[in-house]
Specification:
Structural class: alpha/beta
Radius of gyration: 20 Å
Number of strands: 8
Distance between the termini: 35 Å
Shape: elongated
Helix content: 40-55%
Strand content: 15-25%
Length: about 220
Amino acid sequence: MKPISILIIDDHKILLAGLHSLLSSYKEIDVVGLASSINEAIYIIKEKKPNVILLDIAISGENGLNFIQQIKELSHSSKIIILTMYEDYEYFKEAINKGASGFVLKKSMDSDLLYAIKKVNSGEVFAESQFISEMISNNDSKNISIEKQLWDKLSDREKEVMVDFARGFTNREIAFKYYISEKTVSTYKTRALEKLNIENKSDFIKLALKIGILKN
């Protein structure tokens, strides 16, 4: 499979180098350019048309969100992920509304960045769990499949347990199926419900039907 081409735009030289080092360690990623200003980035975007562009929310003393439209006009196919230290829902909402496909907190980059890149490259939107919860409560989800994003946050085993749970298997039956204890099954279910932002089996069945995990 062809690597995902990446352009990183950040005016902090140390962070730029750190991101380059981090992403270059993944065989799925090809860092095709580094830019510390929008002018530098424009040249690279025109030449390389990267799959994904990582854009710092504050670039050269300006709001990076104001450059999203300009970047999209230069390369319609490029997906934009905003990098920020600000845990502010309004920034996230503005970024998505302006055309960004992802919003990653700098404190979470080690754990979330590669996943976010793969997700937006496949045409989906990436959001941190805290922003997903706020989107749900504010009914700002628009065309983003929030439930699908929450489901994707679960581990493979959590998904397996929840599907069996919805199909009517008991904790004992699930434990026997996967060679784990009933207590572990209960832990998986509790953790999954928390991640999905729901409270009970009925809510999960509705979610599962909506996103196609279960069939009517």
